[in-house]
């Protein structure tokens, strides 16, 4: 909904001084974000959020401090984006079969140019057309398993996502673990596999999971030797938690940015940094 520059400007206005831009399966916004961050005098962390499949479920893997020009990373992301277009077409066909026509075209228009047509674009179109009261309702009634517009899709393998991130010099982080439907045992298995692949972090505090789980995820990060990250998962004004408005990490969590060379700092970042 916002351009990369607008995201950076909003973050700076909200008091954020270290921002990771992690678009889904795409890094094309990072150059614009970098220029805006330099102008706003905040530090931009180049990132990405990769859609992967593990255990029969979609899992999102954040890449932080990546090289956005790395050839293997770019090739992998390109493949995922092409898969997104095919999934979007199938979603549109499914919704048309349920009596809702024009959804693919509408979602594509909301996505703008490029190949990043996702469920959120369909959700916003469904709301705009009066089929749902809000984005959450659109997901609940049309875009989740067992509903008319849901389409199963196989993303890249978890090992590929982690491998691309590591090869590009970045750190791999499991995003919003509270949003998955894994059992406690299955989640622990995911984290064990992720760590063995070279994963480094777990998003302990996220705008996409309930605050009651923050302590549990901090405990899991510590148990599996993972560093803790913190992210709003901000997509648009009025949807979820705004930039810089999350609580700090639990005091005993080890921040993933603790060893980063942050602008204007001579020591590791404190746990309440807005990153």
Structure notes:
The chain is an alpha/beta fold and 275 residues long. Helix 2 links the parallel strand 1 (18-21) and strand 2. Strands 1, 2, 3, 4, 5, 6 and 7 form a seven-stranded mixed sheet that branches. Residues 265-275 have low confidence and may be disordered. Helix 1 packs parallel to helix 2, helix 4 (103-111) packs across helix 5 and helix 5 packs across helix 6 (135-142). It has a domain at 81-142: DNA polymerase, domain 1 (Orthogonal Bundle), CATH 1.10.150. The two termini are 21 Å apart. It contains nine helices and seven strands; from the N terminus they run αβαββααααβαβαβαβ.
Fold blueprint:
Layout lengths: L3 H10 L4 E4 L8 H11 L2 E12 L2 E8 L6 H27 L5 H9 L7 H10 L6 H8 L13 E2 H10 L3 E4 L9 H13 L4 E6 L7 H10 L3 E5 L44
Parallel strand pairs: 1-2, 2-4, 5-6, 6-7
Antiparallel strand pairs: 2-3, 3-5
Helix pairs in contact: 1-2, 3-4, 4-5, 5-6
Beta fraction of the residues? Answer: 5-15%
State the CATH class of the domain at 81-142.
Answer: Mainly Alpha
**Topology order in helix (H) and strand (E) letters:** HEHEEHHHHEHEHEHE
**Separation of the first and last Cα atoms:** 21 Å
CATH topology of the domain at 81-142: DNA polymerase, domain 1
Largest sheet: 7 strands, mixed
CATH 2nd-level architecture of the domain at 81-142: Orthogonal Bundle
Continuous helix count: 9
Helix vs. strand class: alpha/beta
Number of strands: 7
What is Rg?
A: 18 Å
Question: Outline, from the CA principal axes?
Answer: globular
User: What fraction, in percent, of the residue positions are helical?
Assistant: 25-40%
Low-confidence stretches: 265-275
* Average pLDDT figure: 91
């Amino acid at each position: 909904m916002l351009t990369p520059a607008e995201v950076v400007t909003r973050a700076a206005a909200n008091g954020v001084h270290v921002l990771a831009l992690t678009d889904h399966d795409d890094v094309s916004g990072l150059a614009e974000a970098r220029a805006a961050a330099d102008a706003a005098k905040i530090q931009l962390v180049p990132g990405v959020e990769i859609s992967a499949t593990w255990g029969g479920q979609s899992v999102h893997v954040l890449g932080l401090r990546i090289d956005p020009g790395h050839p293997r990373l770019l090739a992998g992301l390109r493949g995922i984006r092409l898969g997104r277009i095919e999934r979007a077409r199938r979603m549109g066909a499914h919704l048309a079969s349920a009596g809702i026509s024009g959804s693919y075209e509408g979602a594509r228009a909301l996505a703008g140019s490029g190949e990043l047509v996702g469920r959120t674009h369909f959700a916003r179109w469904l709301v705009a057309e009066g089929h749902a009261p809000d984005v959450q309702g659109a997901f609940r009634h049309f875009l989740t398993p067992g509903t008319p517009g849901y389409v199963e899709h196989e993303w890249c393998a978890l090992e590929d996502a982690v491998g691309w991130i590591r090869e590009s010099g970045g750190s791999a982080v499991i995003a919003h673990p509270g949003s998955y439907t894994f059992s406690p045992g299955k989640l622990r298995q995911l984290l064990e596999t992720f760590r063995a692949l070279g994963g480094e972090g777990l998003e302990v505090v996220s705008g996409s999971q309930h605050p009651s789980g923050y302590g549990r995820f901090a405990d899991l990060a510590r148990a599996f030797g993972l560093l803790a990250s913190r992210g709003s998962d901000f997509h648009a004004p009025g949807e979820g938690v705004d930039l810089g408005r999350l609580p700090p990490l639990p005091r005993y969590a080890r921040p993933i940015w603790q060893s980063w060379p942050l602008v204007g700092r001579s020591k590791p970042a404190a746990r309440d940094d807005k990153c």
